[in-house]
Amino acid sequence: MNTVSSPPAPLASAPQAVAAEPLLTLQGVHTHIGAYHILHGVDLSVPHGQVTLLLGRNGAGKTTTLRTIMGLWKASSGALRFDGHLLSALSTPQIAQLGIAYVPENMGIFADLTVKENLLLAARRARTAAQIDSARLQWIFSLFPAVEKFWNHPAGKLSGGQKQMLAVARAIVEPRRLLIVDEPSKGLAPAIVNNMIDAFAQLKASGVTLLLVEQNLAFARRLGDTVAVMDNGRVVHAGAMAAFSADAELQQRLLGLSI
After folding, report:
1. Where are the chain's structural domains?
2. Which residues lie closer than 8 Å to 193 by C-beta, 6 or more apart?
3. Which CATH architecture group holds 46-99+176-259?
4. 10 with 175: CB under 8 angstroms?
5. Could you list the pLDDT tens digit for every one of the 259 residues in the chain?
6. How many alpha carbons lie under 13 Å from residue 36 in its C-beta half-sphere?
7. How far is CA 110 from CA 107, 117, 167, 196, in A?
8. What is the pTM of this model?
9. Virtual torsion, Cα 4, 206, 167, 92, nearest 10 deg
10. Residues 98, 85: Cα–Cα separation, whole Å
């Protein structure tokens, strides 16, 4: 496990919430994409300060749920609330300004730009790399040494694991209250997966709430506090990750495999 420096504090303006209270809730959320009805009344609760894993077979609606939260696809009906804010009334930039960051499955980095330029684009308060918060940048370097090592290299030349590190680094270059990541361990070598788990644990310790879509159940078990399982556009199970990890029959029934 990597030894990292203490993370910078989260947003100073963020109110302190009771740990048991959900930071994000979805109630009866339906989403249509063209003629296709993808989400069929999703109910989801993401507790403040915890790591929530969203699991499910391919096509269950996990990515659509994340994109609906971010306003990239608009909910047809239902309510999405983040710390009292009704997300369906906001645009994607406005949702991001609440302190929510999203790392899509394709990572969303700019291949022709350097690692430094990718981070600078995400640091809205900085016009030059020198204006990025130095303590926060050093913390990111401690989480992801490859970001510092390849600082002036084109992002497109990085390995898959290094690109994923850069994508997460971009998402947290400014303080965030909620980090949403789609398939963070997909295609990564075990050593890189361990590094990613360490980084997410540090983010949680700093007060960041995490919502992760994941197919790697071993990854989910090591990191998750709570779990929600989707099937056919609905959440069909929600509860503590520890209990889900211990129930092989439930895993087999819901996912077709076990941890």
Report:
1. 46-99+176-259, 110-174
2. 185, 216, 219
3. 3-Layer(aba) Sandwich (3.40)
4. yes
5. 444 455 554 443 333 433 457 999 999 999 999 999 999 999 999 999 999 999 999 999 999 999 999 999 999 999 999 999 999 989 999 999 999 999 999 888 999 999 999 999 998 878 888 888 899 999 999 999 999 999 999 999 999 999 999 999 999 999 999 999 999 998 888 888 998 999 999 999 999 999 999 988 889 999 999 999 999 999 999 999 999 999 999 999 998 865 5
6. 9
7. 9, 9, 10, 21
8. 0.89
9. -170
10. 9
At 227, list the tokens.
């779990």
8 A C-beta contact, residue 65 and residue 230: yes
User: What gap in Å lies between CA 123 and CA 41, rounded to an integer?
Assistant: 35
Residue type, 137: L
**What are the distances in angstroms from CA 70 to CA 24, 27, 144?**
12, 15, 25
Q: What is the DSSP letter of 224?
A: -
Q: Are 57 and 232 in contact (CB under 8 A)?
A: no
Residue 114, beta-bridge partner list: 154
Burial level of 97, CB count in 10 A (0-12/13-18/19+)?
A: exposed
DSSP 3-state of 17? coil
Closest among 72, 76, 75 to 104, alpha carbons compared: 72
- Output helix, strand, coil percentages for the chain, rounded to the nearest 5: 35, 25, 35
